[in-house]
Design a protein that fits this description.
It contains 20 helices and 14 strands. The chain is of the alpha/beta class.
Length: 472
């Protein structure tokens, strides 16, 4: 391996791969004179080239098609798997044009025939570097757009949320399997979508399956497909999600709930990168990035013999933990505003404000259902509210619905529901007032700012007797 002097490791560079050392060195000297600001590496084998690609940022690679050991075509496939934006030009003899065309179909950008003419070399290099620059700029813009979408979809500015967003950005750039963990309602699906949108597979398909929602006997067919006649009712072939997601991303939601027999077959797919449809003797190669999510403790399930250890480590190459809402309470006001605005837009209502005391209350209230519970609660407030401001009585109303109302599809009339909440508030208020004044109605009226007659009417309506609060 020959490295240029004073190489900047962060610079885009050229890599020339050819088992004839003198030929590779000759091309390197030509390119160094013509493109003095672009570093140039040489390698004499495909294995050596992969080592350079793993440690240096290569923009353009020239590789011989026929080499001992790892061939140029194999090198092309492995290099593009590691970096889909790499620009590759194949070098071939006149007798291997068909192989060069095969390389173009496999992802090579161009090919040159040996002996290489300097003008052809310079022209291919200029075009290849320009292509690499444009791809890099597109990736940068796509990353910026994804970051913007990430901020819009994952609401929160707390330190916990910033760490989560950093984790998402870190795992998105690779093609490894990611295990997303967290309590129910924390937003694991949104995290999965964010990872996909920031990855090189953002333009590919994104499919997801809720594993426990599909009966065990159908899950295998749903994932891996089946051929016609494989079982009763299989009147036509079905591709399955792995094949349908080829070139893209597949989210296996609630992976901890899949049965053991499916776990075994899923492990094989992850190991072999191929699926065998139910009823078929032939396997199908697939290129799918797997994201898996769960709210279960998979390590405990392994101890209990309910989850395969080898599958766990296949899935847990990279991991992202989505924190519960009680670990980022400072984000609750921001989330509440966002969900209320969203609900008003969905209901075609004018925007509403949230009273400060409501925000304080929401931040102090437990949310066992996490972000999903908060979102549903803000939707409920938007439905109940008839004014421009969400106030505390309305919040109490939304929390105090009888159990039978919670279980029914209908809601009580707004006027009746509000009256019930206000009566409850008034009863509690005057009870505390009479306790404080030992049943003295005149003193109670003075402290509350009510007219004596008005207070007496309230006591009569609620059947509260001041005498019961007087000391003997």
């Amino acid at each position: 391996m020959t490295l240029p002097h004073n190489q900047d490791a962060t610079s885009d560079a050229i890599l020339i791969v050819d088992d004839q050392h003198d030929f590779a060195r000759g091309l390197s000297r030509l390119l160094t004179r013509e493109f003095p600001k672009t570093p140039c590496f040489t390698a004499t084998s495909g294995e050596e080239a992969l080592s350079i690609l793993a440690t240096q940022r290569i923009a353009l690679m020239f590789t011989d098609l026929r080499m001992p050991g790892l061939s140029g075509l194999d090198l092309l496939q492995q290099a593009l798997t590691a970096d889909p934006n790499l620009t590759v030009v194949m070098l071939t003899g006149y007798g291997s044009i068909e192989s060069a065309v095969e390389a173009l179909k496999a992802g090579a950008y161009d090919f040159l025939t040996k002996p290489v003419e300097p003008d052809d070399l310079f022209r291919a290099t200029a075009k290849g570097l320009e292509r690499a620059r444009l791809l890099g700029e597109n990736s940068r813009l796509r990353s910026l757009m994804a970051q913007s979408e990430l901020s819009a979809s994952l609401i929160g500015e707390s330190a916990t949320m910033k760490r989560l967003k950093d984790s998402i950005a870190a795992v998105a750039v690779s093609d490894y399997t990611v295990l997303i963990t967290g309590e129910s309602g924390t937003g694991k699906e949104m995290v999965a979508r964010a990872i996909r949108s920031m990855s090189s597979r953002s333009a590919g398909p994104f499919l997801q399956v809720n594993c426990p929602a599909i009966p065990d006997q159908l899950l295998e067919s749903e994932l891996f497909g089946h051929v016609k006649g494989a079982f009763t009712g299989a009147d036509r072939s079905h591709k399955g999600l792995f094949v349908s997601a080829n070139g893209g991303t597949l989210l296996l939601d609630e992976i901890g709930d899949i049965p053991m027999n499916i776990q075994t077959k899923l492990l094989r797919v992850l190991q072999e990168q191929e699926v065998r449809p139910v009823g078929s003797s032939q396997s199908v190669r697939v290129d799918v990035r797997i994201l898996a999510s769960t709210n279960k403790d998979l390590e405990q399930k392994m101890k209990d013999g309910l989850f395969r250890e080898d599958l766990f480590y296949r899935l847990n190459v990279l991991s992202v933990y989505v924190p519960p809402l009680d670990k980022r309470t400072e984000d609750i006001p921001l989330l509440a505003h966002h969900f209320l605005t969203q609900a008003c837009r969905e209901l075609r209502l004018m925007p509403k404000e949230i009273a400060p005391e409501v925000l304080a209350y929401l931040a102090s209230r437990p949310w066992p259902g996490n972000v999903r519970e908060l979102q549903n609660f803000m939707r409920r407030l938007a439905v109940f509210s008839q004014g421009d401001v969400i106030d505390l009585p309305l919040v109490r109303l939304s929390e105090s619905r009888p159990a039978e109302e919670e279980q029914s599809a209908g809601l009580p009339p707004y006027k009746d529901a509000k009256a019930r909440v206000m009566d409850e508030f008034t009863r509690n208020y005057v009870t505390e007032l009479l306790k404080k004044t030992s049943g003295n109605i005149s003193e109670a009226a003075r402290l509350s700012g009510l007219e004596r007659v008005s207070l007496q009417k309230i006591l009569k309506r609620l059947d509260i007797h001041a005498a019961s609060f007087r000391s003997s």
